[in-house]
Sequence to fold (332 residues):
Amino acid sequence: MCTMAPGLEEIVKEELAEKLNSPDISETARGRVFFRGKYRLDELCRLSCVDNIYWMVSRLPIGTRKRDLEQLNEKVRKMDFSGAKQFLGIKDKPAIIVSASKRGKQTYSRFDLADYVTELLVGTGKFVAGDIHEHNFPIRIDLDTDSCAFSVQLTTADFRFRGSNYGYMPGGIRPTVAAALIRVSRPDKEDVFYDPFCGAGTIPRERARMPSRRILASDLNPDAVACARNNLPGNIKVFPCDARKMKVRDNSIDVIVSNIPWGKQIEVENIGELYTDFFREAGRVMKDQGRIVILTDREEIVESAEKMGFGISQQAVVSLHGLTAGVYLIQK
Fold:
């Protein structure tokens, strides 16, 4: 199983098909895609749009009352975690930490479920209890009404954040979401790529994982420019610039991908005017048949793009930090 920002499932399935040679996708749920296949961990870690990857262990039925937790007793104790243990190269007793999520109405909490399963597994003598800082076998339980799925997380936080030595700016997105936006843009090795609202540089950094002719990044905020310069490799040109007056030649850009301001974490006096001015400039700098991919929750983007002569279509609706945003493909 792999997880992703809810709404990106179809984009992730495209990436799975491309990078894992058409795996057997068995199920799709909100924020999750289940698939079968024989892979090494390094092969799975080539995926760029997913947050985490899991080894699926089992699904068990369970009731909705707290006393129904006892239904798990024998089945959890006999559950076979050997495949995940071998895959991760763990020879001693794994140090476990159990987390749970739940949907539906139950009289027990997700913490009750996680604590109960932890006690059962440690009681078998095959595991030791770890904690948030010291563990090597994170177990996840997804409870959906009357069924719970057990899995073991194969990836660490460094996987989805691409390491820990990275600065962030307000209003940023995580690298996996940036990678999904880039995939929507249909990247090509001959692209001149530009992010005119680059913030900390997350989107250009993800684009740099693939071949391109040139990558440009700019921002109006000098703190963001400084942060992006620290985060990005030297072959990416980072410069201060107002996206409404781009310091870019006419008809020179193949692709723009950007997390344009939504007017929330970064205040904007007139968001509709910003979008219209941006698209006016984009029309100047983009080559014919140029592509723009934008993430925003503001409906003003449609009117602004069409006013400036662009065609626009919504490719996905993504849930991020409690907000719902659209992924838009815009073409000159």
Notes: The mean pLDDT is 94. The chain is about 30% helix and 30% strand. The CA atoms of residues 176 and 241 lie 26 Å apart. The longest strand covers residues 286-296.
